[in-house]
Design brief:
Structural class: alpha/beta
Order of helices and strands: HHEEEHEEEHEHEHEHEEHEHEHHH
Shape: globular
Distance between the termini: 35 Å
Radius of gyration: 19 Å
Helix content: 25-40%
Strand content: 15-25%
Oligomer: single chain
């Protein structure tokens, strides 16, 4: 990390976390932040669910909730960018404070509650998106909705024409009873509506399902079956956890979802189990605790066709994207893999 990056991160870490996040987005939009542009190579370039990526390192949903910084993020080195979650109507989310750094644990707790400006605002920004990036939309439901399942379909129908993929997010712990939609019958009904909305798009896009890391093995099996039956493009494993085991930071007991370093092993084991359950036939995106090239590579060898990160950027900044992508390239080369696909699932058994 450069001296300027260290100083900038140090200043941000002295601020309230949510205010610091807002300033980081404004700095990106200002055009003053140096950005590397595309990061790719013959080994890193890959295709996931029909999406052609420069590299398999993606930005997870939550960083750019309202699609405010698409142009600079497209130059930040990511292979794909996921914005949102976006709900049909604007909503303020949960009361502040709702974002907490756990620096000693290299972790974050949030209880945002799908705060966003709604699908109308998102669609207007997505319509002006850069065309040389792979951009996805995380679909959400309003907290006070009378039909949350329909909310996902509404957002896709309204915004789907502007994105390259969409993610059904039923795994956030910060909207009451949202995770109940991960159950078999409820999930089937929800996905049927989303896939119907997808068929109505001029250009049907791949649909992913984002799941929680706190599911029991039986629930994972049911989700794998439902995902296959619904015709989903893949599964994103995983969202944040409610587990607080092993934390030492003062904010460890704050309510909300935990992300960052403590989530790495738990989410990777879920990923590997899903890879086993789907027999490696469904693309999986590994998320949770990635902060090094080695961890990105471990997710891929556990069964991920691509990965996403977010929390590690809070502690290492955007230069981390380049470090992970280039480091992953070297690791693939060292093990004799000509491309990312060659490494997918090669060490899955180690995580089961």
């Amino acid at each position: 990390m450069s001296a300027a990056s260290r100083i900038g991160l140090g200043l941000l870490h002295r601020m309230d976390p949510e205010r610091a996040h807002g300033l980081a987005l404004r700095a990106l939009r200002s055009g003053l932040m140096p950005l590397p542009g595309r990061i790719t190579s013959e080994r890193l370039a890959c295709t996931v669910a029909g999406l052609r990526l420069d590299n398999p390192i993606g930005l997870a949903a939550g960083f750019d909730k309202n699609a405010e910084a698409l142009t600079p993020l497209a130059r930040a080195g990511f292979g794909m960018i996921e914005v949102g979650a976006v709900t049909p109507r604007p909503q303020p989310g949960n009361p502040r404070p709702r974002l907490f750094r756990l620096a000693a644990d290299r972790a974050v707790i949030n209880r945002f509650g799908f705060n966003n400006l709604g699908m109308e605002a998102a669609a207007a920004r997505l319509a002006r998106r850069p065309r040389d990036a792979v951009i996805g939309l995380n679909l959400g439901a309003n907290k006070d909705s009378g039909d949350r399942a329909e909310d996902f379909s509404r957002v896709l129908a309204h915004c789907g024409r502007y994105v390259d993929f969409a993610t059904v997010n039923v795994s956030s712990p910060n909207t009451e009873k949202l995770r109940d939609l991960q159950g078999g019958d409820a999930l089937r009904a929800l996905l049927a509506g989303v896939m119907e909305a997808r068929r109505g798009l001029e250009r049907p896009v791949p649909i992913f399902l984002k799941i929680a890391p706190d599911l029991e093995d039986g629930a994972l099996g049911e989700i794998a079956d439902v995902a296959r039956g619904a015709g989903l493009a893949g599964i994103i494993a995983t969202n944040t956890t409610l587990d607080r085991g092993g934390l030492t930071s003062a904010a460890k007991d704050e309510a909300g979802g935990l992300s960052g370093a403590p989530l790495f092993e738990k989410s990777t084991r879920v990923l590997a189990r899903l890879s086993q359950l789907t027999e490696g036939r469904m693309p999986l995106i590994g998320v949770g605790g990635i902060a090094t090239p080695e961890q990105a590579y471990a997710k891929i060898r556990a069964g991920a066709s691509a990965v996403q990160l977010y929390s590690a950027l809070i502690y290492a900044g955007l230069p981390l994207v380049v470090q992970i992508a280039r480091g992953l390239d070297r690791l693939l080369e060292a093990d004799g893999h000509p491309n990312v696909a060659s490494a997918v699932g090669t060490r899955r058994e180690a995580w089961l």
